[in-house]
Amino acid sequence: MKLYVKKILILSFLIVLFINLNIVYATDNNADAPEITSGAAILIDNKTNRVLYDKNANERMFPASTTKIMTALLVLENCDLDETVTASYDALMNIPEGYVSAEIQGEEQFTVEQLLEMLLVHSANDAANVLAEYVGGSIESFISMMNTKVNELGLTNTHFTNPYGLQEDNHYTTAYDLAEIMQYCIQNDDFRRIAGSVSCSIPATNKSGVRSYTSTNQLILPDSPNYYSYVTVGKTGFTTEAGRCLVSCAYRNDIELTCVILGGTLSDDGISSRFTDSISLYEYGFNHFSLKNIANPGDIITAIEVSNATPDTKSLDLAFVDSIYALVNNSDLDTNYIPEIYLNSDISAPIAEGDVLGKAIYTIDGISYEADIVATHTVENSQLLQFILQIGGLFIAFLITFVIFFSNRKKKKDLSNI
């Protein structure tokens, strides 16, 4: 009985210790960060991939219409914007009541770009199905393409079962994975442009008149109380189960951040936490972190002696070939960071000016920044060494010739005595 009680006490102690460690970790990891009400969030610097804030960032959540950024990505990777798409009746049949649509009609024709505008600006679910069927040949095939891309990106906590965010148990992602997807998406200029549009106007088609839509992302709407001028791109999402979701990017002072909010809530006065939490996190990131220039091209990092070089060139300075910028906390802006230097193992003359002879790596807050280091001048072979090598070669050649000559002479002599 006593042993049993002892085990219970030890287990209780470990649980309390684990909880406290998690609290300490969260506090240290998000020092001075704001409190947010949404279920999960992440703030990442796009250049260094440094995580500046996270809350349940690796917990599987429902993405709702933020799913559409993956749909848009695959469309852009497989289509030209001016291709004509005809909406099929099959693609339009399965949109549940209450889900946003552009009221696309069967056999209605659009360009790929127009459908992408309806998809990303208006969040039209029927546009997602039409594009998915067009690109994949069927919606099922397109879903397979989505999950193949997930695997290519190395995301282990994301799985899609539809192209627009229909609420389904096996349709999930995480704040971290969704940030990774967005970082990949914004490498495409057309995605940036369309997903950053305040509004769009779809010309009259063979079935309908002009359609005009305003973005669902209040962060980019100048007349919105949630307007945040630094946001450049974003996509909202909502289902009852997923809550209010938003994935977006913002740029200020040469820093671009990606922010993901999942499981957001609506306050009593109608304010969505997906917008207020995003603004709070962006302000935290931009106000607490800066890019620090820690190296410039031509800066001397170290000096070496090249043993087989001429006396006037053997002393060699090594310099950076590129600039290095690190994202650091503002409290560390005056810190003098020291790199680890890794030199090539085969350094010997001759060496040309600009030859890469190694690399320098700075490790700051768990992130590695590296740049090649190069020779600042030409290093020539020592003429004395060359002379010694030449004399040695001649001596060896003479010795071989001498041995062969007297060996042949001896053989001839032995033959004459037979």
Query: Mind describing the biggest β-sheet?
Result: 5 strands, antiparallel
Note the total helix count.
10
Order of strands across the widest beta sheet?
Answer: 2-1-9-8-7
Helix percent reads 25-40%
Computed Rg = 33 Å
- Give the beta-strand count: 16
Topology as H/E string? HEEHEHEHHHHHEEEEEHEEEEEEEH
Low-confidence stretches: 1-29
Mean pLDDT: 89
From the spread of the alpha carbons, the general shape counts as elongated
Secondary-structure-based class equals alpha+beta
Q: What distance lies between the first and last C-alpha atoms, to the nearest angstrom?
A: 108 Å
**Oligomeric organization of the protein chains:** single chain
Strand content: 15-25%
Written account of the structure:
The strands form 5 sheets. The protein has a 5-stranded antiparallel sheet, with helices on both faces. The termini are far apart. The protein is elongated, with a radius of gyration of 33 Å. The chain has helices spanning 2-29, 68-78, 89-93, 112-120, 125-136, 139-152, 175-185, 189-195, 273-288, 383-416, and strands at 40-45, 51-55, 84-86, 109-111, 199-202, 211-214, 231-239, 243-252, 255-264, 289-295, 300-305, 315-320, 324-329, 340-343, 356-364, 367-375. Strand 7 and strand 8 (243-252) form a beta hairpin. Helix 4 packs across helix 5 (125-136) and helix 5 crosses helix 6 (139-152). The longest helix is centred in the last third of the chain and has 34 residues, at 383-416. The chain contains 10 helices and 16 strands. It is α+β, with helices and mostly antiparallel strands and 418 residues long.
